[in-house]
Amino acid sequence: MLNRRTFVQSAVKTATIAATTRLNPLIAQSSPPSSKSPNDVIQFALIGAGIQGQGDTRTALQVPGVKLVAVADCYDGRLAHCKELWGSDLFTTRDYREILARIPAGRWGQPSDIGGAAVFLAASASDYVNGAIIPVDGGWMAR
Ligand SMILES: NC(=O)c1ccc[n+]([C@@H]2O[C@H](COP(=O)([O-])OP(=O)(O)OC[C@H]3O[C@@H](n4cnc5c(N)ncnc54)[C@H](O)[C@@H]3O)[C@@H](O)[C@H]2O)c1
After folding, report:
1. How far apart are CA 140 and CA 104, in angstroms?
2. Atom 19, ligand 1: residue with shortest CA distance
3. What 8-state DSSP symbol labels residue 37?
C-alpha cells in the first residue's frame, strides 16, 4: 500500500537512481533541464542596508534558491551601493512601506506562518495531498 512513508521512500530511491545516472555524462547531456517553480525561490527584502543588514544579506545569498528582491534604506548612497552589489534590477526605496504595500496580507511573514502549513503536511489530514505547492506568502502569488 502506498502511504506517505512508502511514497517518500520510493521518491528517495528514484532520486538516488537519478543522481547516480547523472554520473554518466552522455545521459546527463540528454537530460532535459529541470524546471523550477517560482515557489522554489525564497525571495526577501532588506530593510536597513547597514553593516549588519548587508552582512546578513551576503550570508543569506549563499544559500541556493534565495533571492534578494528589494532594499529599503534611509540613505540614497546605501541604495546605490546595494544595486552595485546585487544588480541594477533590484527594487529600492527610501520608504519600507512601499515594499510592504506589495503584500496583500499587509504584513511581513512570520516563522509561525510557515508552521501551520508544515503541521498540515505532516499530519494525516493531508494524507491524500501529493505534489501540491502551498504558497505561504501573504497572497503574493495570488495577486
Ligand atoms: N553592526 C553589528 O555588528 C551588529 C551586530 C548585531 C546586531 N546589530 C544590530 O543590527 C541593527 C543594524 O545595525 P547596523 O550596524 O547595520 O546599523 P547601521 O546604522 O549601519 O544600519 C542601519 C540602517 O538602517 C537604515 N534604516 C533605519 N531606519 C530605517 C527605516 N525606517 N527604513 C529603512 N531603512 C532604515 C539606516 O538608514 C541605516 O542605513 C541594529 O539594531 C544593531 O544593534 C548590529
Report:
1. 6
2. 50
3. -
Query: For residue 34, is it within any domain?
Result: no
For a ligand 1 pocket test, name from 46, 47, 51 the mutation site with the most ligand atoms within 8 angstroms of its C-beta.
51
Quick check: CB of 78 below 6 Å from ligand 1? yes
Note whether residue 65 is domain-resident. Answer: yes
pLDDT < 70 positions in the chain: 1-39
The domain that holds 89 is classified in CATH as 3.40.50.720
Which residue in the block uniquely carries the three cell numbers 536597513?
48
Note the pLDDT tens digit of each residue in 56-82.
Answer: 999 999 999 999 999 999 999 999 999
Give dist(CA 68, CA 141) in Å, integer.
17
Residue 90: which domain range? 39-130
Q: Is 82 a member of any domain?
A: yes
Give the pLDDT score at 33: 56
Question: Considering only CA atoms, which residue is closest to atom 21 of ligand 1?
Answer: 50
**Structural domains in the chain (count):** 1
Global pTM reads 0.71
